[in-house]
Amino acid sequence: MGINIRRILIGEPLATDQAIHQRLSKAKALAVFSSDALSSSAYATEAILLVLIAAGTGALGVSWPISLGIAALLLIVASSYYQTVHAYPNGGGAYIVSKENLGTLAGLTAAAALLIDYILTVAVSVSAGVAALTSAFPALGPLRIELALVIVAFITIMNLRGVKESGTFFAIPTYAFVVAVLGLIGVGFVRVLTGNVPSPEEAQVLVETSTATGGLALFLVLRAFAAGCTALTGVEAISNGIPAFKPPESKHAGQTLIIMVALLCTMFVGITFLANHFPVEVAEHSETTVLSQVSREVLGGENIAFFYVQFATLFILSLAANTAFADFPRLASLIARDRFLPRQLTNMGDRLVFSNGIILLAFIASILIIIFDAREHNLLPLYAVGVFVSFTLSQTGMVIHWLKDRTRPNFKPTWGWRFRIGLNAFGAVCTFVVMLILMVTKFMEGAWVVILAIPLLMYVYTRIHKHYEEVAASLTLDGIQPGPLHEPREDRGHSPVVVLMNSLNRCSLQALEYAMGLSDNVRVCAIEVEPQGVEALKARWQSWGLTVPLDIVESPYREIGNPLIRYLHKMDEKSESSIPTLVVLPDFVVSHWWARLLHNQTSVAIRAALYRDQIARGRGRPVINVPYRIGDERYEPTLIRAHKDRVSVGKSSENNVSERD
Fold it and tell me: Among 2, 183, 342, 614, which has the highest number of CB atoms less than 10 A from its own CB?
């Protein structure tokens, strides 16, 4: 029953060779990777006004030039990422650019900042979506947290269904919001041009404050600018997800980036423009958002058009978290592939998505939603700091990337080359300054949490990496010369024995030697979950000259249990013995409980599959675990070690004779 429910929610598994057909068109990619950036236009203006209101209603007019400054910064950052999209077509964004050009430490810093930002994106977007809903229906206010958690669960399920299917679904609210906001701006702009707006109240301009409060005024402007920079979050998403686009990937990703930036600038600046020409009330923890008030004023009350804008805003804000769900798992998989995060994050799920990363993101974001009462204004001070850290590192890395071109043969510094370096360098300086402003102005409001969390996450990276390095050092075959594993003996049995392995290392070699001591009828089975790993196993098998038959079992759906059971059933049918085929399972053991969480738990999945098969067929199967303890003395095959000892003794004897002579 559980399996049926899973299939209903997530869908039937997709074969690995279907991955190319899951790529996104530009229209769907805009919905998947741009919903976060586009949705920020719904609350970025409000974030600016909430800061400026501290200086009085007259200060609200300064939001207009601030929004223009933020739009200019957006164009600079987007231009830099447009170059990144073409320079690094395999994706990875700031992490890959920083790691390759500035070093591993810089890459991990960018990665930590981005992962934190994606978690906050989910919490902020969903909370903002709930705020839009409670603005239209205040009676739902007490259910903020419950509504937010339901939305997170829904987005999680949709993303587990696959990137193409989720892209189709999320395109509807994304384009509905774009139409709603552009329509609202169009109507509002016409009303402003025709003078059909409420008469402006007498306002005191911020710059007219006294000299004694001039410093405070400047600080407020900087705080407002920093608050509005939340409009830039999500700009980097396309550079991280380039492999998800249909070929040619870089070209389509670059075009999608241009469309996204054009829409975002128009919507953000347009909403700020309307907020300066129509009356709005700005207050902390207000149950009515600024966009909702602007919609009510521009559209003439709570009519069909007003509710369309409200629901479109609700859906885009709630589902804008989809950008994080698309990018967080991809980025986490790249970091895990470099052994800085658990390897399970590299596993493809049933629907060709990184399921473990999706579930992890949903879990952490849900905790934040509960802690911060599903109110986006409580989370916004933590927001955007991380993304500007990654902006700065990415653009600095691009400067180094272009400078490396000078080492190419026949290199000539063209005008275009100089322009690219200048653009990236200017962008790096701008985003660095904004990063400092964010850290200073938002430090006491909660930005210190992010500033502390980045190095803390980097420490976790290094601990995980150190563990994987220790495991690799314990498992490597370096130092062992290929040779025979077992001498032929008459006392061995003939019952069929299968050794399971996905790579040839000291742990699997020990299990193979043990199996060859049990029977002269031994085979090795490898489940082809990752084709690259199987090819590496074949190459190592050949280089060692092993004569034990190696059976490669295809697994088009990347599972282990069912293909293994089918293989064992075939072995049982071919066997002359009445005893089911014996399974020998290499199993390396780690010392700490937390270290066990860093490994795929493949043996657990295999034992579960064997147990289910035993229940279904009514007969058991002998399974032998051959443990290999990481950190103990490294294993060497008995015959090879004995040969090495004989050679060592022989050399020692020769040296002694030479010394006597």
Answer: 342
Query: Which residue's structure tokens are 């669960």?
Result: 153
Structural domains of the chain, ranges and CATH numbers in brackets = 19-405+416-447 (1.20.1740.10), 497-644 (3.40.50)
Q: How confident is the model at residue 211 (pLDDT cuts 50, 70, 90)?
A: very low
In this prediction, residues 427-437 reach a mean pLDDT of 90
**H or E stretch covering 562:** helix 561-574
Strand 623-629 with 582-589, pairing: parallel
What span, in angstroms and rounded, lies between the C-alpha atoms of 123 and 318? 9
Residues 242, 253 contacting (CB under 8 angstroms): yes
Q: If DSSP codes are grouped into helix, strand and coil, which group holds residue 588? A: strand
CB 565 within 8 A of CB 592: no
Global model pTM greater than 0.70: yes
Tell me if residue 104 falls in helix, strand or coil: helix
Is the pLDDT assigned to residue 160 strictly greater than 70? yes
Count of CB atoms within 10 A of residue 423's CB?
Answer: 19
| φ, ψ dihedrals at 525, nearest 5° | -120, 130
Are 342 and 207 within 8 A, CB to CB?
A: no
Distances, alpha carbon 201 to alpha carbons 26, 204, 573, in Å: 45, 10, 89
* Local confidence band at 464 (pLDDT 50, 70, 90 cut-offs): very high
The pair of structure tokens assigned to 5 is: 């429910």
- C-alpha closest to that of 18 among 436, 425, 323, 352: 352
pLDDT of residue 210: 36
- Which run of H or of E encompasses 604? helix 602-617
pLDDT of 647 reads 52
| Banded pLDDT at 601 (limits 50, 70, 90) | confident
Alpha helices by DSSP H, listed for 353-414, are: 355-371, 376-379, 385-403
Average pLDDT over residues 588-600: 82
Rounded-to-integer distance, Cα 574 and Cα 568, Å: 10
Q: What is the distance between the alpha carbons of residues 52 and 49, in angstroms, rounded to a whole number? A: 5
Q: How many residues does the chain have?
A: 661
588 within 8 A of 468, measured Cβ to Cβ? no
Query: 3-class DSSP state for residue 489?
Result: coil
> 582-589 and 522-528: which strand pairing?
unpaired
Rounded-to-integer distance, Cα 642 and Cα 547, Å: 20
| Full strand arrangement of the beta sheet holding 550-554 | 550-554, 522-528, 497-500, 582-589, 623-629
Chain segment 642-661, per-residue pLDDT in tens: 656 555 545 554 555 444 45
Q: Cα(266)–Cα(182) distance, rounded to whole angstroms?
A: 8
CB-based burial label for 264 (10 Å; 0-12, 13-18, 19+): buried
- In the block, residue with structure tokens 């920083």: 98
